[in-house]
Design a protein that fits this description.
Number of strands: 6
Helix content: 40-55%
Oligomer: single chain
Number of helices: 6
Order of helices and strands: HHHHEHEEHEEE
């Protein structure tokens, strides 16, 4: 399963998966799909998968502890061509996301980190886990 499909099937609300997957998987629509996703990520993510959120996520002690125990390879997806498609350890992927002004999805083995697009106000950031919470 490619990263886009794994991300959509694992972390997106069931009723929105098909559309998100279509946009992320189609080469001609991928850029716009990533951009649209990141403008409305809070509405599209499956909240049962949410572990942490906040504009300062990357500085939270709990997130820093998470990174220490989950620093395996990650796939980076973004409308920013400078980071899109990179395979990096989580810590380096987060550093790249912080430096990017565009939205970034970091997909690890059983988690995802989503950085919304930079702009006026707070930047949405989420840590999602593949394990569903009830």
């Amino acid at each position: 399963m490619d990263p886009e499909e794994r991300f959509a099937k694992t972390f997106i609300k069931k009723e929105r998966r098909k559309r998100v997957l279509y946009e992320l998987s189609d080469p001609g629509r991928r850029y716009d799909g990533l951009s649209r996703f990141c403008h409305s990520s809070g509405e599209l993510i499956d909240r049962r998968k949410l572990v942490m959120e906040g504009s300062g996520l990357e500085r939270l002690p709990a997130f820093l502890a998470f990174m220490k125990t989950h620093n395996g390879p990650c796939t980076v997806m973004s409308p920013d061509p400078g980071v899109d498609g990179l395979e990096l350890p989580l810590k380096e992927a987060v550093e790249a996301a912080v430096m990017s002004f565009d939205a970034v999805i970091i997909l690890g083995k059983d988690y995802a980190v989503v950085f919304g697009e930079s702009g006026p106000g707070e930047r949405e950031k989420y840590l999602l886990s593949a394990e569903a919470r009830t």
